[in-house]
Amino acid sequence: MTEFIALLSHSSTLFFTLVFVFSLVIGSFLNVVIYRLPKMLEQGWKSECREFLAEELAKPVKLNDEPITLSTPCSSCPSCQHKIRFYENIPVISWLFLRGKCSQCKTKISLRYPLVELATAVLSVVIAAYYGVTLTTLFLLILTWGLICLTLIDFDHMLLPDQITIPLLWLGLLVNINGAVVPLSDAVIGAVAGYMSLFSIFWLFKLATGKEGMGHGDFKLVALFGAWIGWQLLPLLILMASAVGAVIGISLIVFKKHQREQAIPFGPYLAIAGFITLLWGNGIWSWYLSSLT
User: Fold this and answer.
1) With 0-12 CB in 10 A as exposed, 13-18 as middle and 19+ as buried, what is 165?
2) Model confidence over 200-217: pLDDT tens digits?
3) Rounded Cα gap, residues 167 and 221, in angstroms
């Protein structure tokens, strides 16, 4: 193992190739998580409701209430239920070979699936190039994969599952025990400050308008980033996420006739801004502060 790590350290081409290929496979799995985890949560909530409400217990279980996990049932076409064979599930290549269509019913397969796989691979290589052959790279890859899931789940369902957010928050604190990214004290303060910053804004907005301006998952997501990048860069993260969110929100209202009362997920902007801040935050923050003076 030591010799293999030494080989990766001396051969950047081999290292980046392994990261890229392995991350393509991970990206395929992330597609499963993005699709199935919200359904698993919904099933769990329904089950809890049936246990709580006596009248629900008398209702027959519907066919679509068949238990779903990340491993079962086997992947299938949503239109014709064709079981996807292993050679039809090779990241990117299978989609290109099938020309973006189911092999049986010819229903179009969303372009998002190969794009998620490619994005996972590319972002993983970016992390690998920045941090090199280190244990920190592995932890940051896990963070990156989790952020991809959170981004798309929030985009689809306005939901940031605790099952992803909370473990990544704790992982950030553990990684920084020895100051891998930032000192532990900065990470702990960052987690608390990250949560409390949006929590305070949420309640000030609610007291002023009587409406809820954001979900509680957003508080936890900022706390997650605080645990990884420390408290010093949190203002930059929130500033970038708010700026991008405002631009996209205004664009949707102007060009897509998006209703002002209709909610827009904030998690994707936080995730994107957080990833950028993680890698280049110090340089961006220094440039921004210097431009003010």
Assistant:
1) buried
2) 988 888 888 877 777 789
3) 11
Note the pLDDT of residue 49.
Answer: 78
**DSSP secondary structure letter of residue 108:** B
Q: Are 222 and 195 in contact (CB under 8 A)?
A: yes
Q: Name residue 101's beta-bridge partners.
A: 108
Among 102, 70, 66, which residue's Cα sits nearest to residue 84? 102
Here the tokens at position 124 are 């993983």
Contact (CB, 8 A) for 154 and 160: yes
- Which residues of the chain are modeled with pLDDT < 50? 63
Sequence-distant (≥ 6) Cβ neighbours of residue 247 within 8 angstroms? none
Q: 122-145 in b/e burial notation, b at 16+ Cβ within 10 A?
A: ebbbebbeebebeebbebbbebbb
Residue 76 DSSP SS3 = strand
- Residue 57 is predicted with a pLDDT of 56
Alpha-carbon gap, residue 27 to 140, rounded angstroms: 15
Alpha-carbon span 281 to 279, nearest angstrom = 6
pLDDT for the residue numbered 50 = 73
Q: Give the burial string for 66-103 (b: 16+ CB within 10 Å, else e).
A: eebeeeeeebebeeeebebeeebbebbebbeeeeeebb
> Alpha helix locations (H) across the chain?
2-10, 12-52, 54-57, 93-97, 112-131, 135-157, 162-175, 184-209, 216-229, 234-255, 267-292
256-283 pLDDT tens trace? 666 666 678 889 999 999 999 999 998 9
Could you tell me the pTM of the whole model?
Answer: 0.89
Would you state the structure tokens that stand for residue 82, as one six-digit string? 């064709």
Q: Which of the 8 DSSP states describes residue 88? A: G
